[in-house]
Amino acid sequence: MKSMTGFGYNEFQDEHNHIIINLKSYNNRFLDIIVYLPPYITQLEQRLRSYISDRVNRGRIELSMKIKELEEQVEVHLDKNIIHTYVDALKNLSIEAGISDRINLSHLLRVEGILKPIKNYDIEVYWKRILPILEKTFKSFEESRCTEGERTGECINDLLVTIRKNLDIIENKVPDIELKVREILQKKFSEVIGDEVDEGRILTETAVMLIKFDIKEEIARMTSHLQTFGETIKKGSPIGKKLDFICQEMNREVNTIGSKSIFLDVSNAVISIKDAVETIREQLRNVE
User: Fold this and answer.
1) Contact 278, 239 (CB under 8 A)
2) 138-149: per-residue pLDDT in tens?
3) Same domain (yes/no): 197, 225
4) Stated pTM of the model
5) Residues 33 and 136 both lie in one domain
6) Which letter, b or e, does each residue of 137-160 get, where b requires 16 or more Cβ atoms within 10 Å of its Cβ?
7) Could you tell me which residues come within 8 angstroms of residue 202 by beta carbon, excluding any fewer than 6 positions away?
């Protein structure tokens, strides 16, 4: 079992770059990946998204990356068009002004755009530097998700024990249902027609009421759901959605048992089961 909440961090520095990667996640119904990158490596966004989506099934994932250039690869571009245009303009200016001053390099260096520094960003080179750091970051991220998932699993297992105990209380009451129904009918008939009670009529009415109050099927289905839940929770992720569906089915069965209850201790057991199932569903909101 993995939690949808996780955190991973790693940084690396060599003679070229200082790279920092943060990876964190929150619970979400679907997979939602947010990537924050320096503008000059946005071409890597799709690769990073694919890396995450191949390994994570559900949750809001935020990947942020910071890169500090320690040794920049720069080329300087000389804009010849601007040079010729500016020199021609200076010559015309000297003619118009009647000044025979020589044009020198200092005049041109003041002109914006003549020299343009161009940084070389080789995406493949960056990817080779980033990938090992990303893998280390993801490893710590997965470890944090697994640790949180184990804690959640322990809590859920405790709640499953509570459900099983209360289901046993309900199941142990099943043999008493017929006696209770018969007692209720006997009392009602006695109130209406006195001591001359038709035993056959009581048996017929008891059979009818037992159909109404019988909970054996619901108990059997609850037992099956608990077994399926236990088997599923042992599997690897993703299991969150399936476990939540099983909880819905358990809720359905226990609500039916509650509606048929004629014993106070059964009603109390139903309340305890419903509370445990709802708590499990809250825990599952953070399970992948």
Assistant:
1) no
2) 999 999 999 999
3) yes
4) 0.72
5) yes
6) bbeebbebbeebbeebbeebeebb
7) 182, 185, 186, 189
